[in-house]
Every structure is written in C-alpha cells, then in structure tokens.
Design brief:
The protein is α/β, with parallel strands linked by helices. It has 14 helices and 13 strands. A seven-stranded mixed beta sheet has the order 3-2-1-4-5-10-11, with helices on both faces. The protein has a four-stranded parallel beta sheet with strand order 7-8-6-9, sandwiched between helices. Strands 12-13 form a two-stranded antiparallel ribbon. It is elongated and about 70 Å long.
C-alpha cells in the first residue's frame, strides 16, 4: 500500500479544483492507494509537513460536484521557487522526509509554468538520490502559455468569461449617441492568448472588439491613437481589448516582482484611458477585469472543467505506471468535431519555457485577431455548468480555515 499527495500552486482558476477532483476520484478506484493527502499552500505544505487527509474532508459525490464548481485553490496556493539542490539541499531533504514519513509514493503538482519547474527539479533530485517517489505535473493556467500542450485547464473558462463580459460591455457602450472609447484590460504577462480570445465575438457577427493588442506585437502609442481614430470614423462606440503585458512607458505599471521574477502588472488600461482623453477628447473609460476573469465559475466552460478533471485522473494513472518527471498535456486531433487526447511530456521541456500566441493569428496591422484563429478558441469555451445553488447563487466547497492554518 502507498499514499499519494497532491498540491495546487500559482494563480487561481475556475478549473484547478476540478483537477483535484480528478486526482481524488481516480485514487479512490485504486486498491493499492491508502491515504490521499492534500498539501496546504502548494509545495510549502510539503516542506512544512502541513498535509490534510482529503478522505476525511471530501465525503460524498455531492462534495466532489461542489468542489468541481468551486473556483480558486481549495488547498491554498504559493509562489515558492525551489532552489537548485546543488546550491541548497536542505529544503529537498525536508520534502523527502515529509513524503517518506507519510509513505507517499507519488506527488502530483497542479500548477502553471513555475510549478512545472518544481516538478522538474524535484524529480531530478529524487532520481539522483535514488528516492522512489514519482512526481507528476498537472497543468493549469489561464494564460495558456505552457509549451507542448495544446491548451491548459483554466484557460477555456477564463476565455469564456472574457468574451461574455466583452459582449455585455459592447451592449452597454452602444446605447448613447455620443462617440466613446472603452478600453478593457485583460490578463496576460507575456502571452496574449486570453486577450485574443475576446475576438471570438467576431464569430457571432460582432465587430467588437474593434482593436486587440497583445504582448507579441511591439506596442506603439502613436499607432494606437491612429487606430482608435480610424475605428471612431466607422463606429460610434469603439471597444478595445488590451493585454496587461504590452510594452508601456516606465512607471505605468508596478515594478514589484514575485519570487520567480514576474512583475505585478496592472495599469495599462487606465494609462491608455488618460491618453485617449487627452489626445482625442472623447468620452472614454477603462475596465480592468482583474481577478474576475480567472475565478468566475458561474461562467465556466463545461469543456474546460471536464478536461481538467480528466487530466488530473490521467496524472494518477501515469504515476502508477511508474512514470516520473512528466507533465500531462493535451494534443488536439480535430477542431470540428473537437477532439483531444491526453499524453505526457517531459517536465524539463516545459519548465521555464513559454508558448506565445502564434504570429499568424494576428493581423498584419498588429491590432486584431484573424478570423481563422477563432477555430482554436471556440471549442474550449463550449458548454455550461449545471451549478448547484443556494439562495440563488452558486454554492462553493470549502475546507475550514482552521484546518489550513
């Protein structure tokens, strides 16, 4: 008999708990797995030996259904960067001690690019020290920037929220007779996948968003103002989608960075609002979607949630087959009808790399998304969740705060 451990890390999404359910449900099917531990606050919980028994908390099928529709990370998260073990082995010894003490034979880490760095470092350390503990990565990120995998759990739901919200903003903006510009700031540090997804409205016959700016194209303020003026000559209300990560003057965004060196980004929307007001002089507002775009499970994509659960379950099977240092990935077979399969990739090929929006998806002017690119996005936002509600709002699953302290 062995035990397994699972942890969640990085930014919250609508789908990360569905992957946890996939790990949990698949583990329940295996007679050789005894305890299923959840690590509190990602890898930090393993380091500090702060694990909880998930079987004592997820008691019924209804609990699992609630957990699947609950956004964010029920076990808590972290942004802890493991050092190179050659430079600092002490933390690796603590991790090994915790896992051995609890007879854990497999550790599954649900997270994004930085979490896959942890999977890679930990699996390499265990191999070097002949420690028989399997380490598997389960992908998640709304940024959709993990290499090799066609897409990442969490992205589809975030894209659906962004497109739906953009649709509603468009309806709101066109009711007045005076010309206006609305600038919508969307998450995306280096990759413009999520901002680009707003263009799925074009598949519905909408002209909005009229302009789309992503980090993959060098941003010019003069070109932006010219673009806005041109669109204002055609549309009474101009809707602009802009990634938080586009290049802007120093001081517009915070210079603060996290443990992985990532800047905390926000402010481009407000900056462009001020520029438009000053240079064009029309009615203008900026809207920062902020955390709502990653945690609005009431607009979750059923495709996204179902795939998140499936890839979590596949991670358990992969570990039991003796694999380690692997990340579960999606390979798309067809757009229509949408078909994808789950495979594995080496964590070393994913960690510390990024997948950018293909240049072919961006129009020649660098200010919108080509129509043929929409076939990539559309399958990922399909289906609605049959939400369990209480007092008219979606109900969430929660682990009592005292357990997580």
């Amino acid at each position: 008999m062995i035990n397994i451990a699972v942890a969640q890390s990085g930014g919250p999404t609508c789908a990360i708990n569905a992957s946890l359910v996939g790990v949990f449900k698949e583990s329940l099917k295996v007679s050789t797995i005894d305890a299923i531990f959840g690590s509190v606050n990602g890898i930090e919980g393993i380091i500090e030996n702060h694990l909880v028994d998930l079987k004592s908390m997820i008691l019924t099928n209804n609990d699992m259904e609630l957990l699947k529709q609950t956004p964010s990370t029920v076990l808590g998260s972290c942004r802890y960067k493991l050092p190179d073990w050659h430079d600092d082995e002490e933390v690796y010894k603590k991790i090994t001690e915790t896992l051995k003490q609890r007879n854990i034979g497999a550790f599954l880490y649900i997270g994004g690019n930085d979490s896959m760095d942890t999977v890679n470092k930990l699996s390499e350390y265990f191999a070097e020290k002949a420690v028989d503990i399997k380490v598997i990565g389960i992908p998640k990120t709304i940024d959709n920037d993990l290499c090799i995998t066609d897409h990442t759990p969490g992205f589809g739901s975030a894209a659906k929220y962004v497109a739906t919200t953009m649709h509603e903003i468009t309806r709101d903006s066109i009711v007045y007779s005076i010309p206006s510009v609305t600038i919508v700031e969307i998450m995306g540090r280096h990759a413009g996948w999520l901002t680009a997804s707003s263009a799925v409205l074009h598949a519905m016959g909408e002209t909005a968003p009229h302009l789309v700016y992503v980090p993959e194209v060098k941003f010019s303020l003069d070109s932006f103002l010219a673009d806005v003026r041109q669109e204002m000559s055609k549309h009474k209300a101009v809707i602009v989608a802009v990634s938080e990560g586009i290049e802007v003057p120093e001081g517009v965004q915070s210079g603060v960075v996290d443990n992985f060196g990532h800047k905390y980004l926000s402010g481009i929307g407000k900056y462009l609002e001020d520029v438009v007001r000053s240079e064009i002089g029309c009615k203008v507002r900026s809207i920062e979607l902020n955390v709502m775009q990653r945690c609005s499970s009431h607009l979750g994509s059923k495709t996204d949630i179902d795939e998140a659960e499936a890839i979590g379950a596949a991670g358990v099977r992969c570990a039991l087959e003796g694999e380690t240092g692997k990340v579960m990935v999606f390979r798309r077979i067809e757009d229509i009808p949408y078909t994808a399969v789950i495979e594995t990739a080496d964590a070393k090929d994913i960690a510390n790399n990024e997948k950018f929006l293909p240049k072919k998806y961006i129009n020649s002017a660098g200010n919108n998304i080509r129509d043929f690119a929409l076939k990539y996005f559309l399958p990922l936002i399909q289906g609605d969740l049959n939400l369990i509600t209480e007092n008219g709002i979606p109900k969430h699953f929660a682990i009592h705060e005292s357990v997580l302290k």
